[in-house]
Sequence to fold (418 residues):
Amino acid sequence: MPIAISSHPNSVAADATANSENNVMFCQGTGLSPALLARARSLATEHSTYSAHLADAFDTKIARRVGELAPIARIIKEWDKANESISELNSLLDDPDTDTELRSLAIEDLASSKSALSNISESLKLALVPRHPFATLPCLLEIRPGAGGDEAGLFAFEILKMYTAFCSRRGLRSSVIKLEAVDGPAEDRLSEAVIEVDADGAYDLLRSESGVHRVQRVPATEAKGRTHTSAVSVMVLPNFPETGGGMDVSLNVDDPNNDYYVDPQEVRSEKMRAGGAGGQHVNKTESAIRLTHVPTGIVVSMQDSRSQHANRKKAWQILRARLAEQRQEAREREKMELRRGALGGVARMGRGDKVRTYNYGQNRCTDHRSGVTVHNLDDVVDGGEGLDTIMDSVRAWLIDREVSVMAAEELATDSSKQ
Fold:
């Protein structure tokens, strides 16, 4: 069945006003504001300055900065080249002495140059958006039922299968490292699950899945055919390597000076007997582990393995991930508060916000951030290309939102200087 897609515009910031007539002319239709273009030029100049400095004396920090700015400097050159081509072609078309054959060729080249400029603009936006500090890491996906009783537990299990199928189709190595079901007649009512996606960059690929996923459908147990609404919470957490060898020092969680380091002295560890299914051996052995991070009150329990050592290792893995995500979210909130003063308010969606609706009666899945709807629900929940479409739309929405905010910041900075 083909996937039908619809969308509506979703803007988070007012369009920036132009700083120069030249920039206005070339920014129209590219989705790139003059203020943002000015920012890119400033960064390209910084790249040139630092590159000259490196020619005289090598410095590790400066070399890293030059590497970060190199894509922007390269794309700005492409931007200027495309603009120069468009300007020359327009001049040719404005000249009444241009013959018919040359005019026809100029029209074709102009369309091609404008298309190239649009693509260059998208590349520049991507280069300008700061990379998330966890972008290169693997990740953990935590899935929990929310409001909706048994139906929420059933849908949580389907969400688990959706992500495992997605990872399998995309060739991402994944495994369920924690799986707890609700006691009762149905074995597929999920209480909590954690999927480990062991692939570099998995966090950046999946981080937009965090939030509340809402389902609207008639439960199998509903005798009167009424539609019920329930919810599932999804959290995407960074998964840090076990050692810091050969990795970015900023992500070495074994370093006490690292922002994401967890002091073992602040963690209370308790041994317990495993509960639930698992046989006599599981219930008679204190193999389950519960870790409590005392300063924040975050609790992680693990009993999936018969090995206490294995449970402790997984519990620490999840605890570090939760704390790192919490600290990063705190930084992002602080950053947003600083932006509010200059921009008059900046919207931010958190993990508790409703991000997506799966409506079975209408055979649709709608993302409430990008506004995109896919009219093939089975393909989405099977982890198919429909899910790709939605995830791609959200990543594009995140980039557009950040670009809009950066453009507004540039305008605010320019206004304060006048």
Observations:
- DSSP finds ten helices and twelve strands in the chain.
- Residues 31-128 form one domain.
